[in-house]
Amino acid sequence: MRFVTFNVLHGQVMAGGRPVAGAVGGPGESGELGEVVGGLGADVVALQEVDRGQERSGRVDQARAAAEAGGFGEWRYGAAVHGRSVPGEGWALDPGAPELGVYGPGDAGGPPAHGVVLMSRLPVRRWRARRLPPAPVGLPLRVAGRRGLVPVRDQPRAALAAVLAGGQGPFTVVALHLSFVPGWNVRQLRAVRRWIDDLPRPHLLLGDFNLIGAAPRAVLNGPRGAGPWRDLARTATYPAHRPRVQFDHVLAAGLPAATVRAAVRGAHAPAVPVSDHRPLVVDLDV
Predict the structure, then answer these.
(1) Which pTM was predicted?
(2) Which of the two ends of the chain, N or C, has the fewest CB atoms closer than 10 A to its terminal CB?
């Protein structure tokens, strides 16, 4: 099976590390984002920074468009931000919207949103969603298309878990996007680990952790961890035009070391025209 995690930057088309003006998503409902997702040949996909009804991305339901372009019948969109993206200012939140919204193939309309997606070709036996509150402080960050460091407030995030019907029995996959605030993302990752503890193993976490290298594995295997958790890929994914660090990860627990070595058939981070991250692709027997 092929597993993919990809921070899509709301479908923004990039060239040489800079956004291409007016090119978000490309032509049509799915556009460049749909073409990229469909071209990865994945069985399970986790996407982060996905828009729903936002003006900046053509008011497209990007989760639905990506799922349809990739031929995924099972999918959910978890929105922890309901509101409009205001250029240079952040989010104008919708006070009447829920803190966490979960949308699927049968849902249409609703307020503009931003969040994560989990898509599967395998049957899903159970879905679960969780909101991850924002850190109380922000940080100066590098933002695609802007010079220097830009002060950025943290935002609430969502995690989606699915129990899939695999050929060797049920297993659990989680899509998540953690805070960029150091320490707060560690707290969120430990909370997700506890949150899925009762779900069938093996467990696979796919997402943008905003933690580099071996840090996520060390956190998950820390106090009261039910590991051992193992990295399934050690590949730089950011920035997309010249990858130097790995923020995007696929980790597994519940597979013996010998099984992991035999099961991982390959991992790579291909260059694609969308986003400031590269997708991380892992081929795994599970």
Answers:
(1) 0.92
(2) N
